[in-house]
Amino acid sequence: MDDEKKHGFSGPVTAFHERRLPETATPAGYAALIEALRLRVPVPRILSAIGPHHKQYERDGWRIYTPRHAPKPDLEGHLTFALKNEGVDLGVLKALFRATGPAPIKAMVRATPTGSYARRAWFLYEWLLGTKLDLPDADKGAYASVVDPDQQWAAPGTTSSRHRVKNNLPGTPAFCPMITWTDRLRRLTARDLQARARAAVANVPADLLARTAAFLLLKDSKSSFAIENENPPHDRIQRWGRAIGEAGHRPIDLDELLRLQRIVIGDARFVRLGLRDEGGFVGQHDRDTRMPLPEHISARSEDLLSLTDGLVAFDRAAAPNLDPVLAAATLAFGFVYIHPFADGNGRLHRYLIHHVLAERGFNPPGLVFPVSAVILDRIDDYRRTLESYSARLLPMIEWEPTPDGNVRVLNETADFYRFFDATPHAEFLYECVERTIDVDLPAETRFLKAYDGFRREVANVVDMPDRTADLLFRFLHQNGGTLSKRGRDQEFAQLTSSEVSQIEAAYADSFAE
After folding, report:
1. Domain 184-202+215-268+275-441 is classified in which CATH homologous superfamily?
2. Which of 100, 110, 176, 182 is the most buried (most CB within 10 A)?
3. Is-contact 346 223, C-beta < 8 A?
4. How far is CA 419 from each of CA 93, 172, 415, 477, rounded to the nearest angstrom?
5. For a pLDDT cut of 70, what percent of the chain falls above it?
6. DSSP letter, residue 146
7. How many CB atoms lie within 10 A of CB 98?
8. Which H/E stretch holds residue 26?
9. How many H-runs (helices) and E-runs (strands) does the chain carry?
10. Under 8 Å CB-to-CB from 492, ≥6 apart: which residues?
11. What pLDDT, on a 0 to 100 scale, did the predictor assign at position 3?
């Protein structure tokens, strides 16, 4: 029985896993493999199909190829098509290898021992499953990259002489999300934002830069709490700000994450610190039945230690060799999907962004980009970014409610958190970092410079304590540069009309657009 009959590769369809196709077409690559082998994996963000016309295009989450691209309708044909055209999807591949066993991969290698796709599939089988196939080491064929670096984000790589491949996967079998190059990512990475950030502060006086850094640090800390709809006391915000300011100084491991959780929680009398010992989800409860209504289900508690170890291994072994912003997106969003703690996950997730950027020297020394403030401004985009994977993950998780209104996961899910598609997350974070460098950083230095000029002009008009001058500025700022009637009649009643006019003119000169 051939693979087409054995695995039931489908013909033309109009819908796939509730996703409509732009036209009637035949699923190919990962879509065909998922359907034929009934793989329970999150459906890839972009799927492929063979259309009836000689027109190649992408629409509605589908990439439609022409009939000449059609693979041979068997497992080897669709696997080769996937590796060639869709890149490496480790979650689908691991589920596929578990479903098929070693026989088809060994047959591929024996049939085409010098074939690059056969050797890549062979390497991936052994790398993902941690088992060695009964095959002799390859002795012919040019070395092939496991990941096509023109197609997906890849590490510098090491050679595997057994398979005659270059292992350039950007992670380890314990944690290795993938990022596909898009036009947006190519544009963003080409801008060399690290150099732009340094250029933006190169001519800023040291004292002004120090004040800018302090303000941006506080702004980020406040915003990170605001994203979680929290308004904690100022001392707690400052304490978390100091922790962010030290990001990158210590390597990330479980003990460090636990230390940071204690800082961010503060009063832990009603929160269990440490790794969860029960299920976890993000969402609401039904008002009447208290039934969980999850928007995202976190990793199982029994998988948390191995998944956290995977994050640590990625940060130590892989991230140092990769683009800092892409590495930060991968690590931080991987953490928030795993959601290892009962509380504090969101703020720690954003801390990890700062950790990677600072550890890699991406931001100028002593300066923290207010990424959380940008995220707060773009909160709807942030949520859509999180949902880009959570919405595809949720249908794959079997769960039941617990008596206390939590969830209990019933199936194996660890690989769903190890191997997600981090492309939307990388695009989102890169755009946030871009805005901090192009807008927030220069805007803050301009503001402080203008504020200093305003204070000097005020001092030429009237002597007043710093606190009083700052209050005067706030009155003017809140009223468009004019001292309000209340200010004239109460707090600054001692100012003459002439002095008020001079101060308003000083404000206008200092903060002129």
Report:
1. Fido-like domain (1.10.3290.10)
2. 176
3. no
4. 10, 10, 6, 49
5. 98
6. S
7. 14
8. strand 19-28
9. 22, 12
10. 472, 475, 483, 500
11. 47
Q: In angstroms, what CA-CA distances link 366 with 33, 37, 194?
A: 50, 53, 14
Of 122-131, 209-218, 378-387, give the lowest mean pLDDT range.
209-218
Tens of pLDDT, residues 255-278: 999 999 999 887 777 678 899 999
Most confident range, picked from 214-218, 261-265, 352-356? 352-356
Of the chain, the end-to-end C-alpha distance in Å amounts to 76
Residue 131 neighbours by CB distance under 10 Å: 10
Tokens of 428: 């989102």
Burial 373-411 (b: 16+ CB within 10 A, else e): bbbbebeebbeebbebbbebbbebbebebeeeebbebee
Integer Cα distance of 250 and 486 in angstroms: 51
Spatial distance between the Cα atoms of 126 and 19, rounded to a whole number of angstroms: 32
The CA distance from 212 to 99, in Å, is 56
As to burial, measured by CB atoms within 10 angstroms (0-12 exposed, 13-18 middle, 19+ buried), residue 183 is exposed
Contact 304, 275 (CB under 8 A): yes
What predicted TM-score, i.e. pTM, was given to this entire model?
0.92
Structure tokens at 323: 């683009």
Please list the residues that pair with 144 across neighbouring strands.
165
Residues 102-118 have pLDDT tens digits of 999 999 999 999 999 99
